[in-house]
Design a protein that fits this description.
Length: 335
Amino acid sequence: MTANVTPARPMREIDAASFDDAMLASAEPVVLRGLVRHWPMVAAALAGNADAYLRGFYRDATVNAMLGAPGIDGRFFYNDDLSGFNFAPVRVRLDTVLDELKKHAASAPAPAIYVGSTTVDTCLPGFRAHNDIDLGARDALASIWIGNRTRIAAHYDVPDNIACVAAGRRRFTLFPPGQLRNLYVGPLDFTPAGQAISLVDVRQPDLQRFPRYAEALANAQVADLGPGDAIFIPSMWWHHVEALDAFNVLVNYWWRCVPDYMDTPTNAMLMALMTIRELPPEQRAAWQEQFRHYVFEAGADTAAHIAPAARRVLAPLDDDATRTLRAQLLKKINR
């Protein structure tokens, strides 16, 4: 049984004039209409010259690309038994990718061609001097995505990010973090592009195989973006991204508002899978209480009974304390 694929709620929208620093702290996604409409890249795309504009910055760079047969219908995913993938990863010159996109622009169906998350300054030096956004004090990493009609399965990212549509149209379908259980996520340690993904085909969800997805869909938000539009995606929100045209360019800005010494929480979860998940129920409950006390509900009184000079890892961490703790953990893991 295939579900009605129309999510329940439209996404909140603001115009470029309303974009401010407070919006970047939102816990909900926000569509930013016209945020980068002033970019020369967007003007070139609207005039049909996006390919030529990108080539103007190209300096013999190679990129990581994904190539799929026409039969995958643009959906980069696993093979049937999840032992591999339905596409081939390649390392190739960016101008070769642009040539292939132009060659297959009118093909129906076309092979799926996708350059994912490539640092803008590396592959297109000078591009950001003319096409950029001001994120204040945030030290954001700018990445570019180039491809044809492709679909990226629902996944989350640890950083906050703003995705700017520079050419083509894209449809974003977002799910709150609390919908994890209803998204039927695949393997955590064997993924198409580094992040765990939902196994549900958002365009044609199979509710016999994935019945709880109906609940996820009821809580989903969707937005269609054109050249010049952008979307703010908060940390940990699941997002499915579909490129709707034969040539699409997206520029992402990623950042985390945490100290540089903080590692990704994903590593802590993987360690917990290795050390806690298989314990007897009573012991898991005991460790749940440990995490509640020391991590999720930690406060000023957690270590108040210990003299400040003796609190060690229970004191606020800094670069030096984190470096020491990381070294201790690595020594224990590699015992």
